[in-house]
Structures are given as structure tokens and as C-alpha cells.
């Protein structure tokens, strides 16, 4: 699977290893830790700030994608 940045430039190639549908009010520890948060509350607070129009509440469903990094595209980290 190709991952592109905000400028539509290819950044890396990943392989999805697991996909889960999770409730915003019940974020599993492996999900918030996987995104480098210190708690589920921090995960929720950050996503509420970043997605102000989404009206996030406990019953909103999120898709959690676990993946393996296959390749970083040359120059992707420099730009």
C-alpha cells in the first residue's frame, strides 16, 4: 500500500497486517501507545483538537490499521 504526504508525494510503502474497528470511547492501549500517546485520554484530546468538525464522542467508530513498513521512499524524510 502506498502512503502519500500532504503534497501527494509518495512517502513509503506499507503492508496492512490487521484492521480493527474501535469505538472512540474505548481506545485500546496498543492503539494509543502505537501512536505514541501516554494515555487513551491524550489520544482522544489530540484527535478532538485535530478533527474539530468531526464531533467525536464515545460511540464514534475509528478504523485502526496496523502495518509493517516495507520501504521508505528515497528523499521522503528530507522533504
UniProtKB/TrEMBL annotation:
Protein name: ASCH domain-containing protein
Source lineage: Bacteria, Pseudomonadati, Pseudomonadota, Betaproteobacteria, Burkholderiales
Amino acid at each position: 500500500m502506498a502512503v502519500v504526504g500532504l503534497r501527494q508525494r509518495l512517502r513509503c510503502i506499507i503492508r496492512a497486517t490487521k484492521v480493527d474497528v474501535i469505538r472512540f470511547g474505548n481506545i485500546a492501549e496498543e492503539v494509543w501507545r502505537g501512536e505514541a500517546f501516554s494515555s487513551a485520554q491524550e489520544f482522544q484530546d489530540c484527535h478532538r483538537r485535530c478533527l474539530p468538525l468531526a464531533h467525536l464522542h464515545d460511540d464514534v467508530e475509528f478504523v485502526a490499521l496496523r502495518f509493517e513498513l516495507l520501504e521508505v521512499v528515497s528523499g521522503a524524510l528530507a522533504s
